[in-house]
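Is this the right way to post structure tokens for a design question? Let me know if I should format differently. Anyway, here goes:
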């Protein structure tokens, strides 16, 4: 069954929750910025961003089998974000979202935090490979690396 559909404004709260928890789980250990991850980065604030900028949802697709469990955001041929509810990871939800984007939108590349080994391994398993392209993550000293198909 296909559980992937276009995101709706009603999904915004769930998307914000999934995104925030993933940021804290995956990026806080790298950046260790208490103020950002526990003061600035709040579900309510992110929800407001979704509500005020509904265009964000235009290229967002959710995995919804009765509960929104993950989402992918694309821009042209690039994956901008791919997150799955942390307690539901390793259940092929991320794989389903990624394969959906590849098949339907001919995704070619993405940028991943160089220190996010788990994400890089996931993408490599799905046919992406590291390139020599790097750039600094905005407002940090950490590198993003480009992966492409």
């Amino acid at each position: 069954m296909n559980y992937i559909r276009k995101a709706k404004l009603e999904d915004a709260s769930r998307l914000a929750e999934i995104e925030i928890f993933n940021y804290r789980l995956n990026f806080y250990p790298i950046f260790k910025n208490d103020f950002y991850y526990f003061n600035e980065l709040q579900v309510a604030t992110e929800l407001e961003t979704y509500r005020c900028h509904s265009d964000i949802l235009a290229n967002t697709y959710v995995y919804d089998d009765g509960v929104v469990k993950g989402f992918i955001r694309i821009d042209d041929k690039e994956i901008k974000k791919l997150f799955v509810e942390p307690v539901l990871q390793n259940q092929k939800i991320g794989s389903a979202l990624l394969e959906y984007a590849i098949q339907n939108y001919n995704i070619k590349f993405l940028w991943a935090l160089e220190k996010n080994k788990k994400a890089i391994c996931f993408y490599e398993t799905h046919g992406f490979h590291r390139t020599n392209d790097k750039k600094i993550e905005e407002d940090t000293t950490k590198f993003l690396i480009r992966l492409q198909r």
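Format looks fine. Someone answered above. Worth noting: The first strand starts at residue 4 and ends at 6. The beta strands are 4-6, 60-64, 68-75, 78-84, 109-113, 129-136, 143-148.
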